[in-house]
Amino acid sequence: MRFLRISARKQLPSRTKPLPAASTASMMQPGVYWMLDTPFLRIIGLYSNCLENPGFLEGDGGMDTSQLDWLEATLNSIAIDKAKKALVIATHHPSYSSAGHSGSSEMNQSIDLICQKVGLYPDAFLSGHAHNYQRYTRRIGGKQIPYLVIGTGGIAPQRVPEASGQPVDDGFGTTYDAALASYGCLYVTASANNLKFEFWPLADGERNQAYDPIAVDLATHVVSRA
Q1: Do residues 68 and 76 make contact, with C-beta atoms less than 8 angstroms apart?
Q2: CA–CA dist 84, 192 (Å, integer)
Q3: Which of 26-30, 71-75, 92-96 has the weakest average pLDDT?
Q4: Rounded Cα–Cα distance for residues 168 and 105 (Å)
Q5: What is the distance between the alpha carbons of residues 212 and 222, in angstroms, rounded to a whole number?
Q6: What is the mean pLDDT of the chain?
Q7: pTM for this predicted structure
Q8: Position 143 pLDDT exceeds 90
Q9: How far apart are CA 49 and CA 27, in angstroms?
Q10: CA 139 to mean position of chain CA atoms
Q11: Half-sphere exposure of 127 (CA within 13 A, CB side)
Q12: HSE-up (13 A, CA, CB side) for residue 140
């Protein structure tokens, strides 16, 4: 029985870096953007390291749009697929960040333009780069979409400001809802009906209890406490 399928762009003939990433410390790898198709969930991974800061999806000084062309074609194929599943987009750089490294409005806009054109937005957005946990809720296209920053491994956690549903000035009704400076990991549960996210902080070498557990109802597209 086959449980998952990986759909990716054709592998590059050798290890390369998309320009202008060649001037950064980014790794050289083929197949740097991809889609993972599972029974209840599709995950699209995008390469945002074409520039270190901010995150950038176009290579060669903005002239190479092959990654965005691939994203549009992939979203179009998902939109007409009869198998309706949750959709998650993941990048290294966050669309929103209020602590540590900043968010990338340029990258966010590039993805938005394609989502709007296709008429398909993700059910959740995952990223890292900032070394802490942050959660935002974006209200767009009839959906409440959680944007999660989970840069919580390796480098020491970066301090975060208090978060309590504070609005983010992006014109889409986005709020900054939770944050924690800690090492830890994100636990994701996918089913036919919802997506659940739990951040498990690491304190004194142990994971004690989940922080900020939420669920996305895939029928109503509402985010609630899990």
Answers
A1: no
A2: 9
A3: 26-30
A4: 12
A5: 16
A6: 85
A7: 0.85
A8: yes
A9: 9
A10: 16
A11: 28
A12: 22
